[in-house]
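Notes from hallway chat w/ T.B., transcribed later so I don't forget. T.B. wanted the structure written out for a chain they're using in a teaching module, and asked if we could keep both sequence and C-alpha cells in one place. Agreed to drop them here.
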Amino acid sequence: MDFGIGDYDLVNKYLMNIYFESSATILTLITLGKYLEAKAKKRTSDAISRLVNLAPNSATVIREGKEQVIDIDDICVSDILVIKPGESIPVDGVLVEGYSLINESSITGESLPVEKNVGSNVISGTVNTTGYFKMKATKVGEDTTLSQIIRLVEEASNSRAPISKLADRVSSVFVPLVILIAIIAGVFWYIYSGSFELALNFLIAVLVISCPCALGLATPVAIMVATGKAAKNGVLIKSAESLEVLHLVDTVVLDKTGTITTGKMQVTDVNSFIEENEFLKLAYILEKNSEHPLANAIVKYIEDLNILDNNEKIKFEEFKSITGKGVEGILKNVKYYAGNAKLMKDNNVDMGSIKDVSDKLLKELKTVIYFATDKKVIGVIALADNIKETSYEAIKSLRESKINVVMVTGDNSSVANSVALKLGIDNVISEVLPQEKEKEVEILQNSGKKVAFIGDGINDSPALTKADVGIAIGTGTDIAIESADIVLMNDNLNNLFYAISLSKKTINNIKLNLFWAFFYNIIGIPIAAGVFYLSFGIRLSPMICALAMSMSSVCVVTNALRLNNFKVKNKKGNDEMKEFKKEVYVDGMQCNHCKMTVEKALNSIDGVVEANVNLNEKKAYVTSNKEIQDNVIISKIKEAGFEVKEIK
C-alpha cells in the first residue's frame, strides 16, 4: 500500500497528466465551437426574422366611427383600417378609399412601387410609400399572405432534402467504425507501450476529433440559407426536396397565357379615320356600357390617355349588346357599331377602304375591333395578349443553360407558333385541353426528362402536381399555388431562372460541405490514432482534437452562409447587369398624379429598372441596366405633358 511513496520520478510524471486542465479546455473549446456554430446558424434564419418583422405590431382601425389603435392580433375580417404614408400594411385586404403606391419588394421581389386604387388588393408586410387610404381586411392572423410565407419558409428550412440521406447512411456506418478504430488504437498502444495513460489518450483523441457534427450540419444549414435567400427575392420554396430536384431539371414546360404572356388583352394599335381624340371619345362612350373583357381593356386604355372631359356622362340611346359580335347604339341620331367583322357584315358596313389595315393586324394575330357608323368604318382598335418583357430574357437564359423549353397552350397553333417564334421556343404544344396538360408532362417524363411545369391557372393544377417540380406564378390562383412546389411571388419569369441557379448553387454547396466533412475526418482520425507517432512523434492531445472538431462545424456553417451572397450571373460570367443612374429635373409636377404620370413614362423606357420621383425636389431618380440617351428621356417626359430642365 506504500506504492509511489517517496517515488518523486513517478510523482513528477503524473503531476502533468492529471488532465484537470485538459478536461476544462476540451469543454471550453467545444462550448466555444458550439457558440460560434449557433451564432453562424442564427444568421441562416435571418430571412425568417426579417419576414416576421415586416408586420407592424399595431394598426389603426375605424370602429364606431372613430379611429382606434389596436394590436394586430385583434384585427377582424371586414375591419376598416387606416393606412398612412410610410406605414406597413398589417393584414391582407382591399382598398375601399384613397390611392397609393405600395412597395411590395419584401414579398414579391418587385423593385418598383405598385399603383393601388379602390378595389385593388394589398398584401400584409408591404409598405405604403405615398398617399393615405382605407382598406377592408380580408385575411387576418395566420391566413395572411405574410403568415403563410413565414410558415412555408420555416417548413422548407426544417424539411430534409434527399441528399441528407447520404449523410445519414454514412453516419450509420461512420459512428460504429470510429468507435471500433478508437478501441483498436487504445488496445494497440497499450500493448505496444504498456502505458494505459498513453493508450487512453489516443482512444479519447479519436473519439473527440471524429464527432460527426459537420456531417449533420452540411445539408440542413445550406437548405435554411437557400430558402431564406429565395424568400427575400420573391421565390417561395415549399420543401427541401423540391429545391434539390430543381437542379436536375432539364426540361421546362411553360403555360402560355398568364405565364409567358400577361394574360390580359391590351390595346396595341389605334387606327382612326376621323380626328383621333374624337374617335377615342366615341369608342370610350360606346364600350363603357359593355361588360366584355375586350371592351374593358379599351376603356382602360382610353382612360389612361387623360383625354376625357365630361364624355362619361353622355350615353348612347337604344344601346344593345349583341352576343358574339359586339354592341350598337344611337348618338345624336347617328347609329354606331363596335365589334367584329361579322357585326360589320351583318349591317352592310363598307370595309373595303380599311382592308389593308385590317389584313395587317390580323396577320399579326391581333384581335381587331371595328368602330363604324351605318355608312363607314371610323376607326379600328387592335388588342393582343402581350408577351411579358421578362419572358424574353428568362427563356433566353434557360436556353443558354441547355434547358429544353416547351410551351403548352390551349390556343390555336397560329397564335402559339407566333409567340414561340418571337421567344425562340422550338417545342410548341398547342390546342391542348386543360386536362391534357398533365398527359403532356407525363409523356416528357416517360422519355427520361426531368420536368418542371410553370403555370398560373386552376386548369394547371394537375400538371403542376404531376411534374417533378411544379412552379406557380404567385399572381395566379390559390389552387395553382397550393398545388405547386415552388411559388414565384410575382409574374417575373426571370425568377424561374434565379430559382434553378440557386438550386444548383445550393447542391454544390452541400456537396462541398460533405466533402470537407469527410476530408477532415479522413485526415484527422488517423493522426489522432497515432499513425505518425512512431515515425515523427506527432500526437494530438484531446484539447487540439476538440478545437479541430469545433472548427470543422463552424467551417461547414460558414461555407453555407456564402449562399447569402448568391447572385445570378449573366452569360459573360459577370454579376448581374451594371447599373446606370440619372437624375432628371422635371418642371410642372404639382401632385401625386403628376408624380405617377412621370414615373409611368420613365418606367416605360426600355432598360429602366426603377424610376422614382421626389415631388419636393422636382426630380426623378432613374436606374437602368443600360445607358439611356438623354433625348429618349426628354421625349418620354414631353409625351407625358412635362418638361425636362436638366439631366445629370
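Follow-up for T.B.: The chain has five domains: 8-41+163-223+502-565, 62-147, 244-261+388-499, 271-379, 580-647. Might be a good example for the class.
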